[in-house]
Design goal:
The chain is of the alpha/beta class. Helix content is 38%, strand content 16%. Bound molecules: 3,4-dihydroxybenzoic acid (DHB).
Length: 477
Amino acid sequence: MVKLFLKKYFIGLLIAYFIVSEISGAHDQKTLIFPVNNFSVRTTTVKTSDGQKKITYRSYLHIPYVINPVDEDFQSLNVYVPVKVNDKKIDASNAPILFDIEAGGFLSVNNAKSQKPNDRANLALSAGYVVVSPGCRGRDNRFPDGKYYGKAPAAIVDLKAAVRYVRYNKGIIPGNTEWIVSVGCSAGGALSAILGTSGNNELFDNYLKEIGSADASDNIFAAACYSPITDLDHADMAYEWMFGEIPLRSGLVDQSLSKQLKEAYVGYQFSLKLRGKGDFGIIDAYNYQDYLLKYYLIPSANKYLKDLPDSIQKEYLKKNSWIVWQDNQVNYTFKDYVTHIGRMKGIPAFDDFNMRQPEPILFGNDTTDARHFTDFSVQYDSGNKYAKVDEQLVTIINMMNALYFIQHENSNIVYHWWLRNGTSDNHTSQTVMINLTTKLQNLNNDVNIWLFWDGGHCADYDPEGFIEWIGIITGYK
Ligand code: DHB
């Protein structure tokens, strides 16, 4: 009798559990478990300074990382796990995880199409690290009915969901989920910077909930950014500060507009209250040229020239007569440097009046392909000098800006940073990455920064240095 009662009671409880879990969706998290036994084994070769290496790795392809994807082709990821380098067996169960962001131009990354690790990922595998290669939505995503579904902040929301997925699978997914190191270039560099500064920020909570992100935190261990296109809301003014007097092939841009933007930059730069190195004091729009020259541009040129064989160095200096070489040191003016690299974009460089640049298109919405995201362009467009960017859009613009999260002291800002740019990159002002650098340095973070001399957008003349750096900051051998 008692036994029968207990049995009925137990069955009742079981039914109640299923009903409750069905309603709450709690059981859904189970579908976010990493399919650790579902891989294929692949091989590839990679050139390293140690010679060519043969890598054998497990390839896990196209794994959805959220419960309610808007488009699974994009909201899925690949995982590559090294098992052998040459003939040496690798145990990657506690290795750093390279989180490799391949987004460019703020466009989507289709994970259904990407099937193998890129060059940087191959180097990471050769060092014994795990690689996660996430897809994400982007400004180009559109349903057949014409609706857009990848406008800001979709890409960063997806990348955070992918980080949460990895951490949720701690102990199942190979690698140390507390050693996630993000990397990307340009738009990808900007997204990497946002991952590094906005860990667990509540602005993203509802977006993450909506797509059914795994129940885990999204802070990471370190962030690497090559030529990051960040601080978009101040990029137009910074661009005029740097390139305002440099003609395009078609001639100078509208100098009256350029001056207005440059004036706005003075106030903006001062508001950041960035402290320069040593006894430089506050960096402002007037001394920034000197700061860049002294701490970044001249050292970069010095290293480049010192490393050149004599005859090639002579030839280089002959071709670049704006560079003075004396007593084994370079010297040149900022004006000559900027003239040398040239202006690339029109005015405004990002929030252009025709909204053809990637950025207004990034800030569109479901039904609008492109929107202005600066007061300057909103005012120009409307002819109303008091017009402002819509408040809801301002929040989204902030969510796409790494500096915003540092300024607002987000509690999970990454300590270790690897920042790289080419000195000839004219996609955005050189001040953008140096502002990010200086802000991080002022908060006592560990910033490994270098500008590659004569390097362009996304230049990387030291790919192995980055891989070694991951070993150093994690202490992983
Ligand atoms: C990229 C380049 C740009 O000039 C830009 O404005 C945005 C993104 C890129 O290469 O990702």
